[in-house]
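Re: duplicated header lines in exported structure tokens

Our pipeline writes sequence and tokens for each protein into one text file. With two proteins the header for the second block appears twice in some exports. Here is an export where it did not happen, for reference. First protein block:
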Amino acid sequence: MGFVANMVSLVLYFSYKLYFDLSTSANTLTNLMGSTFLLSMVGGFISDTYLNRFLTCVIFGTLEVLALSMMTIQAHSESLLPTPCGKSSCLKGGAAVYFYTSLCLLALGVGGVKGSMPALGADQFDAKDPKEAKGLGSYFNWLLLSSVTGAAIGTTVIVWVSTNKNNHNWWKGFLITAVAAFLGYVFLLLGKPFYRLHVPKDSPFMRIAQVITVAVKNGGLSHPESPSELYEINEKDSESTTAKIAHTQQLRWLDKAAILGQNTEPSPWKVCTVTQVEEVKVLTRMIPIIGSTIILNTCMAQLQTFSVQQGYRMDPHLGSFKVPSASIPVIPLIFMIILIPIYDRLFVPFIRKFTNHPSGITQLQRVGLGLVLSSLSMAIAALVEVKRRNQSLKNPLQPISLFWLGFQYGIFGIADMFTLVGLLEFYYKEAPVGMRSLSTSFTFISQAIGYFLSSVFVDGINSVSRRIAPSRKGWLHGQDLDRNNLNLFFWFLAILSALNFFNYLFWAMRYKYKTDDDQNGEEDSCKVTDGGCLLEESTNGKS
């Protein structure tokens, strides 16, 4: 709740409390969110390799609470806040160091939790039990529902508190989110005796490096006539509990890593098992899917930056109540709160009768629907911006209603419902057991690159349009939206999103899902301890 509430309103905090200009406010926020999502990979790696997912959540959650506490202190202390200077950024000296330190800690804390929390929850379901297998699909839906419910509270109550009294209550908003985050992690700690905890294994990056290195070394060797001749440890002779994965014909050059040379003793850097090679193949097949969802997250960044600034120039009244513009993102959240239970309880069981798929439709089909809707959302955003700007120039005292933004937010909210849940479930189910935290963090890696790409687009389009425009001003220059061409930027993203959908379609239609035998082979045995239930991977795969 704290993260979402702060993210959608921080662009106003940067503009009206720290006195950043329009593009600096937007880029600071997108860089922060990009860093946060990128650092989710750190949390996923640590929880898969060194600590279990529960401990990773607790440690990084502590950093998040610390960061929010520091932001509370800065927002409350006049000595840590700048005065207007007319420049792109007025922060300097110790206040700047304090500010960017708190942002770095926030990115690290939230990112680490995002990289480990989804997999921790999914570990509580047994994939080989038919009832729990269906529950796993619902889990990701309800995970999103709980997130958006908290975010709805954040974008209404907390944002209202923060922006009340002419932006003088930001410290109260930060304080509320810090306390809420602290209580959330306390509840997480209380549930420890009941959790199934996955035991970390070897480093995923080390296993990947071994496959690539050995495959390159064996580049001159010929493929064996039969895949059964490739190296695999017999489960009866192995002390490893890692589930075996069946051989596939894709990316056959990696198979050379599983060729054991004559008179060669098996060792990790001389030969790899078929299972280890297939793990790398799975991750490689995921790369085009990750890349195809980047543009969608670039579009999301605009709804959390420029659209909030649009709302600040529109009529915020709903009757006699004044709605903070930063609370407008509650519209897609309300849509999602209503639609997620309907989707999970009505749509999925109905479609499942025809498709026999536990989730109703495949994960990649869900993502495809989300990509189409994101392009539509950007097109609508462009039309709304034209209407807003024309009315503002015609009569600045009678701006259009803030709720015109509801169209673009509502459609993108539905897009996010399909895409985010589809990707989390896809990465978790397709990944090897020992890489599930790392693989679910791929969802956030795509978001990270999308937010960074937003900054690149803003700066790049400003630079190019400044050269070609008769006014010699960029589309997104200065702080006055009425003198900008934000609508053209939205059209640029709408067209780019449509082209990206066809790119995604190309890769999604060629993606080969893991077979049921592969997934059933990844059974988990549960060893009860004083601290909960430790999951150990079994050996029901093929040798």
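Second protein block, exported in the same file:
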Amino acid sequence: MSNIASLLQASLQPASRKQAEQQLRALASQQGFLAHLLTLILNVSCDRPTRLAGGIYLKNVAKLRWEEDDAPLPEADKAALRSQLVPAMITLSDPADKAIRAQIAESVALIAELDFPAKWSDLIDQLVLSLSPTNYSINVGVLQTAHSIFNQWRAQVRSDELFTEINFVLSRFMQPFLDLFNQTATILLSSPAPPNIAIITQAQIILVDIFYDFTCQDLPPGVEDAHDAFFAPQTGLFQRFMSWDPAELRVDPDETQPSLPAQLKTRIFEIGELYIKLFPDQLSRSPAVEGFVQSVWELIGSNKLPGVADDSLVSQSLRFISTAIRSGYYKALFSSRDTIASLIQGVVIPNIGLRDHEMEQFEDEPLEFIRLDLAFGGSASEVATRRQAAADVLQALVSSGYQTEATEIVGSWITSGLQQYNSNPAQNWKAKDSAIYLLTAVATEASTTQHGVTSTNALVDVVKFFSEHVYQDLQASAGSIHEILYVDAIRFLLTFRNQLTSDQLLSVLPLLVRHLNANHYVTYTYAAITIDRILFIKKGTQLLFSQADIHDLAADLLNALLSKIEVAGAPEKVAENDHLMKCAMRVIVTARQTLTPIYQQVLQRLVNILGVIAKNPSNPNFDQYIFESISALLRFVVSGTPSTLPTFEQALFGPFTYILQQDIDQYIPYVFQILAQMLDSHSTGVPSEYRSLLPFLLTPTCWQQKGSIPGLVKLLKAFLARDAAEMVSTGQIAAVLAVIQQRLIPSKINDGWGFELLQGVVQYVPPSQLTQYFKALVMTLLTRMQTSKTDKYVYLFSHFLLFTIAIDVEGLGPDYVISAVEGIQPRLWSQILVNFIVPQVPKMPHKDRKVAAVGLIRMLTQSTIMLTPPNTQSWPQAFVSVIKLFSEPQYLSKSKDEEQTTGITDIDFEEQTAGYQAAYSRLAAAESAHVDPVAYVRDPRDFFGQALVKADPRVKGLLTAGDADVVQPFVQALVTSGYAIQ
């Protein structure tokens, strides 16, 4: 434990990071580690970077390991830490410790999410007791911690559990909260200003945040009773803060960070917006909204706050206006033409133009410019720029019944902007930029991030505007117009892609390829984003463009995209622009087999890029897309030309070996999936390069990273399908079963993967060689059932038993399974059947119903053990459960559509959020088509009929024993169909 400080220091150095993290991980599950770590964080004699690293490590333990199955944290240590965290926050209340305190506050929130209130019932009492009537440094720490816990309610779905937690908090925290809110506001709104005004204002901002937390789901009685104290015009605290602007807190006009009063006002507008959405009746008790609207006018009308520092305040106050217009409750406020005209002139137009700092960003921070520009239509208030918020006011007017007035008034601004541009294009390019932005806003009635504009303002002819004013810029030769206008033209195409026909879109693709070769970062990146989204357009469930459409362009597209990626230089620069990589992936997925003539060059370039970024993995989105690209190229080229597989293997084995040897954990999950995909492409046998990997795949370290497990399971299943005999002879089956029994089945997170691998074992290992392990295996499954049963586990366990009985493997039948269970304890099978399997059958998802039906049919008709008392008593219940499956026969047979789609649609329609997820980075292109494990049964009903005809006479004697209302009609129907079963 004495090494913790030096290990934390080592973890800050790239060279020693990996080893230090492994040692810390080993220490973390030892008794007393958490207490030692917290002591070090609070030790002021220790240097600050080490203490901060300790705070981050503690937060990561709370985030990733708090409920870990593998090497769990000692419960006593967890309980001790819970009791020490709030006092630790108080100890860190010195402003100099702000960064460390933030890590502790986040740790509290993460642990509270899992343990509060059940295991941490005194948390709120601890926080309340820590509040100080005078020391605002302490109050800021306590309120920050409280807000980090309550903030999580904002994104949660309403549920009894959630409201129980909220009410638990309100019963303890509401009164102290209201008292402190009033006290703090009174201090700030009195004169003279207190000497510590800044820290008191920080506390007031967090109090307003907590007010939002408390009202984000429902209106608590305490807040409802105090409504006028907050919202009354003139006298309410929120209204009074709108005009509050103490000289002591004003910032320099060139400052980019918002002042404390601006932050406070922004939060109050957020609450106003929330109330319009959730509690309009409450607001209508007094002219509160009118007061807020007046405040917007006084604060930002006629561009009163031009500074960058006020961007978030201006954006949020505009969002408040948009929400008020959309709500429809305030028609009287906004319906007159004069109001709309002054709103557009006084609030929209001053905020729609590009500003100097945005132009600087365009040149110096292009990716940030793109991120903010694309965020339009998202709902996160912190990403809305001024021009987006202003455009949103226009869209609110258009979609709320004022489109005639808004379109007409904006139309004159657009016309004058275009005239200004035409009079002097070199000088007045900003006028055209604003005109295009205004038109985009007023033309859009509804849009989504994924699909662009889905419905337009009928009064605006988007296609005409495109052909008259935008297309010329798309065609313009490099350098002939301002760079922003190229971007505007491409963005217009991106926004209105659904309004153009497929022929129009195909005709502009070559122009976009040209823009991919542009010099400016934003221009070529926007071209890539637009190509990706055009190729993703769907009509119904079908993609609009196929391989034939881009066959001629695909090589140029990929060459341009990969060239831009390759020239970036350093690993983190190569990986920073995931838009380029995503577009390359989309081209590969669309072009498919037509890439076969150039696949070797494309593959080699992808491998080279991978070699560069592997030196410093920095962007999970880029990583997802490059592995998806490799996987898709492999999938489509090899399926059309199987002889290309060795080329892929030669190109990929080197880099994959490097990734595994260097333990690049972000990439390992992808490597296993693609190795499984390549091995699956071999129809028989296992090449020696794969076989030499197998001992490594069965080592415990391989299975430590959660994200690797799905890919490992797929890879081992591919080995089992081709090489089970060899694995039996080398004793590797025992190692596979050890992984299942020791690592996967005991884990609530990975038990599903354990059963998936088990299915591979029973499918491919000869039953005679599996017998020696089978009983112990069933014991493991039953032990887990006894020690930590979950609904998911009962389903997986029942499905596995039915799967093993159902599959057509010689020597493996119902009695193979049943006798193993009975060998553990007589009469155990009947208990499992009646208590677990039969109740699970009706809950089976549709995809598993055929397996369940076939397993039950084989058990009922082919097992001799089921026909010996006392097992016969459970036979009728199982019979009734299988008959009920036949009441929905559509789920027992595959549709033609399902047979034709081989999982390829997954990648066409993938819109996944890539990332280094704790869970699993799935490669859609590496997914194989679902194979029916009981394909030998064409028609389950016919199979049932035939099985009953051939069955032991004792089976026929049991046919009448079940629920007559269910059994008789079914048996009668079989007899009528010609099955001689009576």
